[in-house]
Structures are given as C-alpha cells and as structure tokens.
Sequence to fold (548 residues):
Amino acid sequence: MNHQRKDHPLQDATVPNLLEKTFDYNLPPLIRFDGPIVEYIDGKQVEFDPKSVLTRDIVITDTTFRDGQQARPPYSVEQMVRIYGMLARLGGPKGVIRQTEFFLYTKNDREALDRCRALGYKYPEVTGWIRAVKGDFRLVREAGLKETGMLTSCSDFHIFQKLKFRSRQECIDSYCEVVAAAFEAGVRPRCHLEDLTRADIEGFVLPFVDRLMRMSEQVPEELTVKIRLCDTMGFGITYPGADLPRSIPKLIYKLNRECGVPGSRLEWHGHNDFHKVHINGASAWLYGCDAVNTTIFGVGERTGNPPLEGAIIEYISLKQDLCGIDTTVITELAGYLTSISMAIPDNYPFVGKHFNTTRAGIHAGGLRQAEQIYNIFDTAKLLGRPPRVAITDKSGVDGIAVWVNEYFGLKGEDRISKIKVHKIAQWVMDQYEVEGRLSTITDEELEAKVKELMPEYCAKFKGSLKNL
Amino acid sequence: MDKEEVKKRVKKVTAQVLGINASEIKDEAEFTTDLGASSLQSIRLVAGYEEEFGIEMDEDKALQVTNVADAVDFISTYLD
Fold:
C-alpha cells in the first residue's frame, strides 16, 4: 500500500482549544462519529450507521436478579425491592433501564417480584426466566408476566454434549415446541441463544432463527419472538474482519438483516472472560442490536456480565444527553451493595473508593488549578463524588492543598493557597523521610493534623467541614 | 523599612528554613541551585517571609522568585 506523507502545519493558538463539543464537563465525554462503520461480510462491503443510536430506542436491560444472583449468595426479598427501586430511579421515566428479569421458582422469587411491581414503577418492566420446559409457562402465567426468557442453547457443545439431543433437527423441534407453548400461553418468548459465539451459525443458528421468524408471523406483534445473543463464554469480539461465530458485527448483521429480526427484538448478553464485556455490549448497540443486558457492577456468572453502570455512562455518551437518567443513583447503589457485603475494588470505575483519586503530586497540581485536567467529568455533579487526592510522599504540596480545600469545602476564590498548608506538608514528608512510613496517610490522620496545625481555618470554616 | 533591613530579615528566615548559616547566603544566591531548596522548602520560605513581614503575597508570583535579591525586591513592594 502506498502511504503518501502529509504535512501537518502547527495551528498556533494563544487560547486553549478544550474540545468542549466532546468534553462537555457536565456530561460523560461524548462519543461522536464522523462516518459509517464498514465490514466485509460474505465478500460484500457492508455499512453500519453508528449515528443511528441517536434516534434508535436503544435500551439497557438488567439481569442482576438472575445472572447476577448466580454469582453470589441470594438477595433477600427486602434487598431485591430496594435494588429494584434504585434501578427504576437510575433508568428514569423514559425507561433507559427497560427490563429486569426474575427467577420464578421459589416462594422468595415470587414474593420479590410481587413487591417490586407493587412499587408502581413503569420501568424496568419485569420479565421471567425459565427452562425450555413447557410446564414452566404455568409459572410465568401465574406471575402475570408478559415475557420470559428461555434457554435455547445453540452450540453443538450444548446441543449434543450437555442437552444430549441426537440431532440438530430434534433440538430445533424441541425448542420450537416450547416457543409454540409460549404463544399459546400468551407469553412472549425471548429465546436465549446460549453459547452463540461458539455455535455453527450457518448450519444451526440461522435456520433456527428463520423458523422462529416464520412462527412469529403467525402471532400478534406483542408475542413475536425476541432473540438474546448470549456470549456465554465471553468469546465475542468486535474487531473488523474477525470471522464467525466470534464476530459481533457479523452475528448481528446475519440476524438483523438476513433473518429479518428487528433491532428492537435483539438483545446482547455478554460475559467478561476475556475483559471484553463492556465494549462488546456497547458495540452491539452500534451494529443494530437495541438492547444490552447488564448487571449492577457486572456481577454475574464467573467473570460477570456487562456492568450496568458502565452501560449507563456509555448510553449518555452515545445519546449525548442524560435522557432522564439519574446518575447519582449509581453511587447510591454502590453504598447500598457494599453495606450488604458486596466488595467493590478501590480502583473500580465510577464507584470504587479511589476511582477519581489522584496520588501523584504533579497530577494534584493540575487538579488544584482546574479539576477537569485530571477528572473524567463532573463527578461531583453526576455521581456526588468530587475528585480527591490520596496523600503520600508523592502528593506534594499541591496534593495537600487539594485535600485541605476539599476538607473545608472551599471552591474558586475561597480556596486556600498551598502556602497556607506548608506545615501539614512538612508533617507528611517527615512521616516518610524521618519516620520511615510506607503506607498512605489516612483521612483521619490528616483531619487531626489540620485541626492541630490550622486551628484558625477550622474555626473559620467550621460550618462547611466535609465528612470524608 | 529600608532594603538592607529587608535583606537581613530575608536571609534570617532563609537560614532558618534551609538550615544554613545566614552569613553564607549571598545576595545573588539562587534558592534551588545554590541553596538547595526543595519544592516544599520553597513553599516554606514564602510562608516564612509572610510571617516575618506580616504580609500576604501572591502565591504564583512569589513562587516565581528565584534568588535572594529578587525576593528582597518582591517583598519590598508589599512594604511600600
């Protein structure tokens, strides 16, 4: 390939270009596209329009109470009701978090479902999850649900080795019998194509989906089959040019444009075995799948599912609008779930204790001058979490000044200069250089030192002291 | 306050903060390269001058002063 060099003359400036169209500090950084996405499928060039996410009704669905509970001790009914209420507030009145699925097997499952629905929220809608067994529709009907997920595993690993079918034909016939039972029961079936990214797409998946589409032509729109694309083992990849069955673009293309399943009836369900879970889900949106299935903080089977809060932030970035989402509920969820023994790593994005904590003095210097320099967006406004500094020997006086100003709750012109915190800074340095300390200085220690060494400021700003 | 008095007191504070003898501090001495001031000591010097002279200086401008003579001139502007 001939690469012709191109000159790039400096565009000198005396005022900064902060790229505010993309980095509007009031929102997560926006994701803007300047052209189509191109793939080659079956030898043809195919285009996808990523800008369509601005107008399509893309949504987030939740499986915290189903896949999420497969990876942890069961939630109590009370806990599920609390979490459901928070999901409703987080997703807002437009139903960005459109659905959440429940098990239906135990008394607790059913009580939780009833109490969640009694809260009266329109969204997330409650759906069920059952085995592909005709008798299970009784549970769905009794629960008064309109839609349920059902297992329709589609790799030969599952068809032959797990489910012990003697042929693919026998398998398809069995699945379709259950789908027909769902129609009869007046319940919309959502077929979970388990292990899709390890399946024979042309040989089994597409013929199966073709048959589901033909069956759907015989029923009212509200009963037509939905398809969940289950990347059960996390094998899915987004790389252009990757082949089937691992290629997410090609999977969605085949189902959407060849089988004719509308995007509104396609849902991506991923797993994180190869660290790709979030971007795989977000990419599914771009390629035409309208729903991405998630769990709160990504807790799910083995390595987990797409994190719901990550999908929320991505959603805002793609839609370039909050869309009625109350992002502060993400912090509320973290507080609640840690209070019931969920461990969240300190460096976990958006909610970890140190997700927006800077340690290096040189970074703290930037933070002190303008917090945008080292903060991803206005985390105080959107998450109730202002940027912080952790104090060590690397924090410098800048870091300590940021900490002290945060402690006193001071902003703008009111902020205390670093000259005024020099005694604290000297004490910190002595901890490491004289005392040989190796650990981070805690907030409690700093608080005590501020009271001791800056008593005049403590008296002056008594009313605005922050609870760190 | 005359410049000589300002200089004498600047050198006194500088000696205290940096742990050196005031008589060894030359007028043209650079705080970092000649007297070995660290970034924290530079902050402490500014804080020390403010306390010594009962003034409050512009932080950014004060930290741009690099030697003793310039410090004397800069502080004097607050004493006029």
Notes: Helices of chain B lie at 3-18, 39-53, 59-64, 68-79.
